[in-house]
Each structure stands twice: as structure tokens, then as C-alpha cells.
Amino acid sequence: MAVNNAGLQIRNLLASLSPAKKISLAVMIIGTITGFALLMSWTGKPDFRNLYANLAPEDAGEILNYLKEQNIPYRVTENGAGIEIPQDRVHECRMSLASKGLPQGGGIGFEVFDNTKLGMTEFVQNVNYQRALQGELSRTINRIAEVESSRVHIVMPVKSLFIDQEELATASVVLKLRRGKWLTGDQVQSVVHLVSSSVSRLKPENVTVVDTSGKLLAGFSDRSEVTRLSSDQLDYQESLERSLEGRIKSMLEKALGRDTAIVRLSAALDFKRQEMTEERFYPDNRVIRSEQMLQEKSGEPAAIPAGIPGVRSNIAKNASGTGSGNSEFEKNDRTVNYEIGKLTSHTIEPVARLKRVSVAVIVDGTYQQPEKSAAGREAKYIPRTAEEMAQLEKIVKGAINFDADRGDTVELVNIPFQTEKVADLPEDNTPPGWAERLQPYAGTLKYMLLGIFLLFSFMFVVRPITKWLTSGSTGDVELLQQLPKTVGEIEREFGGATAAMPYRDEINRLLTAEGDISTDVMRDWMKES
Predict the structure, then answer these.
(1) Which distant-in-sequence residues (6+ apart) come within 8 Å of 62 by Cβ?
(2) Could you identify which of 206, 384, 457, 519 might form a hypothetical disulfide with 388, taking C-beta atoms 3.0 to 4.6 angstroms apart as the criterion?
(3) Which DSSP category does 424 fall into?
(4) How far apart are CA 443 and CA 88, in angstroms?
């Protein structure tokens, strides 16, 4: 019965309202319900945090299947490359996925052999092995800090019975580098040797490395020797200049302070390659190499010439045997071979010979801070003295091994780095922002905001509109009088015209109107006291 009366009273109240008040009441009710629903939805929504980012499609699919099986709410971001889950379950979920080998880093590894089917042909096994090897190499290359992702393609030739007919394996690697990152020459070569050492019959010169922009990083077999040498020479010159610059700057900053010197160095190098073979002989340095001695001696009689010289006398004497006598013959022959001292030297000039070094150095002066009483004044710049500049120049020359005969030059200048340098400011010890400090209490703040929203909505929206809707016409007052009343409203109603009377006059009126009752009440009070 009470419910029917309440419904009747509400219908009568709505019928008595003007159209403008009806619209305002409807807007207030709809707005309150909508705001309350949105706020409850926001506070009830879990705080999502990033579980993984930059996932491969295969890894993302397997991780989503795991989250669905565990009934873990998730949200896909980065066009399918990122997954977010509630903050309180991030670490637990990562450990669970790690125990299952997820994420794998893209591609298929040797886990392809975990479920080997019976009756698999050798061809299928070879294909799976190649896929697994490519996937494992890709995962390993992705461990490099500068590499975001990679793909490896290996060509395995068919084995032949004859060694001279066997072909070598080849491989190509495609790298996607992180934004603002690049690989040095040594890092590229490490990738090349990593791949070549992991594949049978694969030489480093048969590995090609490119990035996603199409730049060739390795695989210089088609480049000429001159081009390769030129690139290496430029790298060597740049490395030498950076090394000398760092040596000079570190010494100056140790003596003068941080950011007080600017050093620029240029080195002229001679990359001409030269080989020289030299032989020197020393005549004073003689050593007997070989010696031959021949000695002949004879004591037989010999014919002695006599008479008239001529053929006839010689024939006659020989025939008659006259003119003979005793004689001796002796012959000595000695041959000595000497080895003259000789020095043979084979000299190869270095790849790069330092021809000349030019150094330009700018150093800052000193600054005199203003006194504490001189507030707002700027620091005074004080240039360095000639003695200081001379000492600094000696330091620079010693750092580069200065050689005047070689044509080295050193220019040392003292210039203020800042034309207006104010006094030193205190260190910035700014505490972390309020958003960072309140981050750990995000969950509690949600419910506090919900309560504050409801309180302020009732105080500043619902209550004023209700008063405006229920104020105005006499008919509205009569309808409101039919609604259930509180004790205070009943007392004010019976108080009627005396509501505005002072308390003293109201007490006197009550004592006069109800004399006996008032007297009994006073007696009871006195007894209690």
C-alpha cells in the first residue's frame, strides 16, 4: 500500500512540474547515471601494463593463446606487436611464459623436432633442420643491442660423391636496426663469422649482410681492392684523429675543468705501400771460404843444350846422347777464395705513415663570481695569462709528439665560451613530480575519486536542482506536504508562526500556555539535579 501511495505521489509531483523542470529533471537523472556508470567502469578497469613489445606474429599468437587459457585479461597494442595485461600479474605471467620458452624471438628453432612424426622422410628432416638453423641464428643475432630483428637465409648445396664437384654453402642476413643505432665494422664481421661458423661448408666471404634500407654491410667480393683499401684508410685516419683529440682534450679538462676546451685535429697520412730489398758488401770483412794448393817436384836427368843452336845440332846431340846431365823440377800453385761480408735487408714500409699533424685548440678563461651582496651581477671574465697559454701549448705538443721538421702546427687560442656567464646556480635537487609519487597509490586513488565525485555531484548538482524543482508554486508545496516528513519538519510545521521568535520568548510562551505541565517538568529537572 505504501508503495502504491509513493508511486501516486511521484506521478502527481511530475504532473505538477512545468515542461522546463521536467526536462531539467530528466537531464539530471540521465547525467548522474551516466557519470556514475563511467566512473564505476573506470575504477573497475584493471591497470594494464606492458607485458611484451615488438613481438613477432608467431610469438604474439602463442602468448595470446596462453592468456586465453589462463583467463587473463589482455589488450593488444602496437598493431599486434605488443600485449598489455593487469599490472599485478605482469611478473607472474612473464615467469610462466619463460618456462614455456616464450617469446622465442621469431622464427622456428630446434623445437620443431620436439614432435617428430614417425615415417618422416629424409627430405622433410633436412628442410626442418635448415629452418631450425635459420631460426636459431636469427634469435642469436637479435641478442645484439643494436638489432631489433633479423632474418637469415641459408642455401645448402646438394652433396656430391666427388670433392671437386661440391659446391659451397651461401647465406644472407637481413638486419632491422633500432632507431638511431648502427653497427660498426667489427660488429658486422662478428655477424658474418657467427653465421659462417654455424653452417657446414660456409666461408665468411660467402655471407652477405644487408639492412632493411638496402645498404650492403658485408659481402665485398664484388668490390675492387682499391675501393676496399680506400674505405679502410678513411676509417684508420678517422680513428687516429679521434684518438689524438681525446688524448689532448682529456689532459686539458683534467687541468682546466670540464667543458673548458675544444680540440680539433687533422692528420695527413701517407698510405703508399713500399717494399725495399738492399744488399751491402763490406770489403774489410773478409773470410776464407776455400783454399786450393798444388805442388809438383821432379829429380830425373834432363838433356843439356850445347853447341851451335839449331835443328841439326839438337838432332845430332839427341842421337848421340851427349850433353846430358842431372836437373830438378819443382812447381807450387795455391788458390784462395775469400767471402766478402754482405748484409741483405728486406724492408716493408708501414701501411700508413704520419706526414703532418695540425691541431687547433680553444680554451676558456676563468670567471670571478660576484660577491653575495652584489645580487644580480654577472660573473667577470678573466683571460688566461701568456705563461698559462705557453704551458698549455707545451702540453698539447707533448700529447701529439710534436715534430717541427715534419711540419706539425699547433694553434692555441683563449676565447670566452659564453659572453654572459652568470654566477653559479645551486644544484637542481628538484624532487620527483607529484604524478611519480602518487603512482604506487593509483588503485586507492581511483576509489577516492569515485567517492569525491559522488559527494560533489550530490552537493553541487543534484541538491541545487532538486531545490529548484521543488520550489515555486503553491501546488508544488501542497504535493510536497503529502510526502513523508521528518521529525524536524513536523516540529517546524507545528511551530508555525513562532518559528521566527527568539528562544526566550518561545520559552515564556510555552510556560504560560502549559502552566501545570511546565511546572511538573521543572520539578523533575530539580529532582534530577
Answers:
(1) 102, 103
(2) 384
(3) P
(4) 11
Q: What does the CA dihedral 303, 308, 309, 310 come to, rounded to 10 degrees?
A: -100
Tell me the per-residue pLDDT of 381-418, one tens digit each, with 9 for 90 and over. 888 888 889 888 988 988 888 888 888 999 998 888 76
Is residue 49 within 8 Å of residue 87, measured between CB atoms?
A: yes
Distance CA 153, CA 138 (A): 9
Q: What are phi and psi of 444, to 5 degrees?
A: -70, -35
Q: Would the pLDDT of 425 be above 50?
A: no
Task: Return d(Cα 392, Cα 242) in angstroms, integer.
Answer: 20
Question: Contact at 8 Å (CB) between 402 and 394?
Answer: no
Number of DSSP helices (H) and strands (E) in the chain, helices first? 16, 16
pLDDT digits (tens, 9 = 90+) for 98-142: 777 777 665 676 666 667 777 778 888 888 888 888 888 888 898
Q: Which grid coordinates are listed for 350?
A: 708501414
Q: Say how far apart CA 24 and CA 493 lie, in whole Å.
A: 30
Q: Which residues contact 391 (CB under 8 A, 6 or more apart)?
A: none
d(CA 277, CA 274) in angstroms, rounded, equals 10
Grid coordinates belonging to 243: 684518438
Check whether the bond before 103 is cis (ω within 30° of 0).
Answer: yes
Model confidence pLDDT, tens digit, residues 313-360: 666 555 555 545 556 777 888 888 888 777 888 877 766 788 899 999
Sign of CA dihedral 139, 144, 145, 148: negative
Residue found under cell 522546463: 20
State how far the Cα of 212 lies from the Cα of 364, in Å rounded to an integer: 45
Q: Note the residue count of the chain.
A: 529
